[in-house]
Amino acid sequence: MIYPWHLYVMSVMYFFAGIMHFVKPKAYLRIMPRYLPQHKLLVFLSGLVEIALAIGLCFEETKDLSILGIIAMLAVFLLVHFYMLTGKKAAAGIPVWVLVFRIPLQFVLMFWALWYLQF
């Protein structure tokens, strides 16, 4: 089955984001909430999950499951976005307006994924 081009854009976006967890792990380690254990492991696992979900979007058998996984992943990542608003060190040098903007953006990304869900 051939999907709309924008589904492939989504796939590439998450694939690239997942790869960046391995290319620039320090950027992700800086924003990990202190209350989470084993930051390095979590950064690499979340990168693997993003890559797997991105690939899963491209196949009819796994597309819907990948979409649900992306929505769940984005919901979990909201914890990091809220954590980053707790202080200057947690913000990792990112302007507050960007941090605030990222929260509704997560919901836009969830809706975008949900758009392709077929039961």
Q: What does this 3D model show about the protein?
A:
With 119 residues, the protein is an all-alpha fold. The chain is 73% helix and 0% strand. It is globular. The mean pLDDT is 94. Keywords: Membrane, Transmembrane, Transmembrane helix. It comes from Sediminicola arcticus. The chain crosses the membrane at residues 6-29, 41-59, 65-84, 96-117. This is DoxX family protein.
> What is the number of helices?
6
Elements, N to C (H/E): HHHHHH
Summarize model confidence as the mean pLDDT: 94
Poorly predicted spans: none
What is the helical fraction, as a range of percent? over 70%
Q: How many β-strand stretches?
A: 0
Provide the β-strand percentage band: under 5%
Short description:
This protein is mainly alpha-helical and 119 residues long. The chain is built from six helices and no strands.
Descriptors:
single chain; 119 residues; mainly alpha
Give the secondary structure arrangement, pairings included.
Layout: H1 5-23, H2 25-29, H3 39-56, H4 63-83, H5 88-91, H6 96-115
Organism: Sediminicola arcticus
Protein name: DoxX family protein
Transmembrane segments: 6-29, 41-59, 65-84, 96-117
